[in-house]
UniProtKB/TrEMBL annotation:
Segments crossing the lipid bilayer: 40-65, 99-120, 182-201, 207-225, 290-310
Residues of the ABC transporter domain: 381-620
Assigned GO CC terms: plasma membrane
Domain of life: Bacteria
Localization per Swiss-Prot or TrEMBL: Cell membrane
Cross-referenced InterPro entries: AAA+_ATPase (IPR003593), ABC1_TM_dom (IPR011527), ABC1_TM_sf (IPR036640), ABC_transporter-like_ATP-bd (IPR003439), ABC_transporter-like_CS (IPR017871), P-loop_NTPase (IPR027417), Type_1_exporter (IPR039421)
A GO molecular function held by the record: ATPase-coupled lipid transmembrane transporter activity
Protein name from the UniProt record: ABC transporter ATP-binding protein
Membrane topology: Multi-pass membrane protein
UniProt keyword terms in alphabetical order: ATP-binding, Cell membrane, Membrane, Nucleotide-binding, Transmembrane, Transmembrane helix, Transport
Length: 624
């Protein structure tokens, strides 16, 4: 039964959306089943407890009232003969007092059981919801972790956060909704319809009952009309919630820019505009949801009135008519409730789709099925006719970021990348750890295309020091240890010493145990860089990519960072994106980039003589 119910629910979700055809049902089910499966036993147990509760309150109590209570008030003939006989057999002729005692004990027990069922029903169904939520969030997060950089560039952080937090929560609440009505209401509908059919077959009033029953499917008309609109609005609300989260994240991440440019009011206006849009769209969804009930009631009333007219004309008696009217009403009620459920499913389908977008996002740079082994020692890195266009620029007809790059970097060599802003230096560096794959051409290591290597193993060989190193909100020691998570304290300290960071770390009151604050805000720019360099020392990888900070450090910091770098690059293949010409002294070879091409390749002193763009850049940086 469980699987069937699941299928029905999935089926409802599937049938609801214009984008999903029946052919998708199976794949959607396959996709969601592993996430639902762990919570399934709790859901079934919760539903069974719900059935127990309904039986004890809907059947147990009335039965007790009708079959036992009359005995205590001298109306034995109205009580159940079965109970009377059992009482006599057990307690003799004057059984009433003993039975009263038993009933007075029994009622609290019934209530206790009923209460226990209510508790278990609520507890297990909520547990199912939370287990599902946990699995869903974990799966979405794991998927996000595995996706390439291009995915992150196409989605805003706040929007992704909102999907993981708000949309996942929406789906959890769906479980609670579905478990309340999805089983109870269809059962009620079947029971009421069964009764109607039975009476109409035995009472010769089939005509008017059937006419009234025909109106039940008509209730589906407003349902279909409204739910289609509802889904559109729900999608827009979910999208706007993502936008809202993005505005919040951006605002909270950049207080310095906002305050220095006095952008507070602009930010507040942007936030308020999003809030207002959400309010407008949410009201529309509420409007459609709220219109469903009255529409179904209206159709039901029309049906009942037709039934009344035909019934009276055919001479039906009052008692039969009222019982049929009650049964009809009972048949409409589940239709109304199920309509509400359908509406709730629709409004959550938007969340389902937004999470599905993450869960099914294609890894555009998958690991090879059978990776080629990495060459044992350090090997040359070769770019062969590499052309690269950022995926988000491919439609705009933009010029490629790299255009026909052919170059070889020998093992142990230090190469500085120089060129005007936007010339392609960072892009060149990003292709080496395979953050992106070339659009045309290939990048090889020791002759093997990077696409044929195991991504993890390849990245283990590279230490990357970005322009603005990210520090996590934990201790300095832990931040350095990211370079090699199994490193002991002594190795962490040694790395800090070689990076020229030990001195300032030890001067802090809590030393290596100092928590650096979100994004390392508790440290200066130069200190953050030296921690990132310590990380690279600890990783001790044969290939080093250094994206030098553009912001100028004070000369003491700069000298310390330079000294640390000089030590770090020794014996490694180093690609240095040089924003400050002082660092070029670290390199024996310079590649000059212009508009995605390499226009100069040679020792810095030769280029200073022969390459006009290089010479101009050099002069721009010279003091005075
Ligand atoms: N994530 C991105 N999405 C789309 N285009 C990008 C992206 N990053 C860079 N570009 C574009 O690619 C080109 C090369 O940029 P790149 O960052 O490689 O230049 P750069 O030489 O490192 O510049 P800078 O010295 O200013 O850092 C530029 O035209 C830039 O606008």
């Amino acid at each position: 039964m469980g699987t069937h119910e699941q299928r029905t629910r999935e089926g409802t979700l599937m049938a609801a959306g214009p984008r999903w055809g029946l052919a998708d049902t199976d794949s959607r089910l396959r996709r969601w089943w592993p996430l639902v499966r762990p919570s399934w036993p709790y859901l079934v147990a919760g539903l069974l407890a719900g059935v127990g509760f309904a039986a004890l309150s809907g059947v147990g109590l009335p039965v007790m009232l009708k079959t036992v209570l009359p005995i205590f008030f001298g109306r034995e003939q109205e009580a159940s003969p079965w109970v009377v006989a059992a009482g006599r057999r057990l307690f003799g002729e004057h059984y009433q007092d003993r039975l009263l005692l038993l009933a007075c004990w029994g009622m609290p027990v019934v209530f206790l059981l009923r209460g226990l069922c209510a508790f278990l029903n609520r507890y297990w169904i909520n547990l199912a919801g939370f287990v599902f939520l946990e699995n869903l969030r974990r799966a979405a997060f794991e998927k996000l972790q595995s996706l390439p950089l291009a995915f992150y560039q196409q989605h805003r952080t706040g929007d992704l956060t909102s999907r993981l937090v708000n949309d996942a929560e929406q789906l959890r609440s769906l479980i609670l909704l579905v478990s309340n009505d999805a089983i109870k209401q269809p059962l009620l509908l079947v029971a009421a319809l069964g009764y109607l059919v039975w009476v109409s077959a035995t009472e010769r009033s089939a005509l008017f009952t059937l006419v009234a029953m025909v109106t039940i499917p008509l209730c589906v008309v407003p349902l279909r009309l409204m739910t289609r609109r509802l889904l559109r609005r729900a999608r827009a609300v979910a999208r706007q919630s993502g936008e809202l989260a993005a505005v919040v994240t951006e605002a909270l991440q950049s207080p310095v820019e906002i305050q220095s440019y006095n952008l507070q009011e602009l930010q507040c206006r942007r936030f308020a505009a999003r809030l207002h849009e959400i309010l407008r769209l949410s009201l529309k969804t509420v409007k459609y949801e709220a219109m469903l009930g009255p529409s179904v009631e209206f159709i039901a009333t029309c049906g009942l009135m037709v039934a009344l007219y035909l019934g009276v004309r055919s001479g039906i008696d009052f008692a039969t008519f009222s019982s049929l009217a009650l049964a009809l009403y009972l048949a409409y009620d589940p239709v109304k409730k199920l309509s509400g459920l359908q509406a709730a499913l629709k409004s959550r389908q938007a969340s389902l789709e937004r999470l599905e977008e993450i869960l099914t996002a294609r890894d555009t740079m998958p690991n090879p099925v059978t990776p080629r082994p990495l060459p044992p020692g350090n090997a040359p890195i070769r770019f062969e006719q590499v052309r690269f266009l950022y995926p988000n620029r491919s439609e705009s007809g933009a010029a490629p970021a790299l255009n026909g790059i052919t170059v070889c970097i020998e093992p142990g060599e230090t190469v500085a990348l120089v060129g005007p802003s936007g010339a392609g230096k960072s892009t060149f560096a990003l292709l080496i750890p395979r953050f992106f794959d070339p659009t045309e051409g290939r990048v090889t290591y020791g002759g093997t295309d990077l696409r044929e290597l195991d991504k993890r193993a390849w990245r283990d060989r590279i230490a990357f020091v970005p322009q603005m190193p990210m520090l996590f909100n934990t201790t300095i020691a832990e931040n350095i240890r990211l370079g090699r998570p199994d490193a002991d304290d002594a190795a962490v300290r040694e790395a800090a010493r070689r990076a020229g960071a030990a001195e300032f770390i030890e001067a802090l009151p809590r030393g290596y145990e100092t928590v650096v604050g979100e994004q390392g805000t508790a440290l200066s720019g130069g200190q953050r860089q030296r921690i990132a360099i310590a990380r690279a020392f600890l990783k001790d990888a044969p290939i080093l990519i250094l994206d030098e900070a553009t912001s100028a450090l004070d000369s003491e910091s700069e000298a310390r960072v330079q000294a640390a770098l000089r030590e770090l690059i020794r014996g490694r293949t180093t690609i240095l994106i040089a924003h400050r010409f002082s660092s070029i002294s670290l390199a024996r070879r310079v590649l000059v980039f212009e508009e995605g091409r390499i226009t100069g390749d040679g020792p810095p002193e030769v280029l200073a003589e022969t390459h006009p763009v290089y010479r101009r850049l050099l002069e721009l940086q010279r003091p005075g």
